[in-house]
Amino acid sequence: MKQPRICAVITTSDLEVIRQAEPLVDLFEVRIDLIGDDWQAVVKGLNKPWIACNRSTVEGGQWQDNEERRIERLLQALELGAAIVDIELKTKDLRNIIKLIKQRAECLLSYHDLEKTPDFDTIRQIIQQQIEAGADICKVVTTARSFEDNASVLQLVPAFPGKRVVAFAMGTAGITSRIFCPLVGGDFTYASLAEGRESAPGQILVKDLKNIYEMIGSR
Prior knowledge:
Layout: E1 6-10, H1 15-21, E2 27-31, H2 32-35, H3 39-44, E3 50-53, H4 67-79, E4 84-88, H5 94-102, E5 106-112, H6 120-133, E6 137-143, H7 148-154, H8 156-159, E7 164-170, H9 175-180, E8 189-192, H10 206-215
């Protein structure tokens, strides 16, 4: 089994917290919408590949400015060395934005359901749309209302052999899917840098996730 990859989500400009997590993770997600203006200083100090993410409020983020500026920041991240850019499948003018991203980095197309986990066929079609749009990595994140929702999202990974997929459910009921996503072949899973720094409900601490993988002999 390949080693499960951990992506730590940076929601703060506190470099000390980032440094402590760096040896434990494979990559970072830089949440421009949560860090604020200091995000550029943060990325200059990173020694691991990073994903640029500027999440809209519609998909659970906190970007307060207009859409044009939101995309502007993501394109700016390309200049600053982002390895991957996360852009929502529902974004307007998606085709052109993907084209710009793929000149410099990999494109992660994401979809979030903040209320529920739709049925398997629905979420399967979403990944199909992401692939057709040109995603290098497909990401579907739902909200778990029951333990069964974990199985629904995790089934997306083997449903697309040869494709890079990240799929899990948010919330306490979805913690299992966060842990298992890379264990069933998902590209990576997300973890938080420190207590109180979570970017989404149910996110596990980097050190706790690392310990879990060591206990089950996957890392």
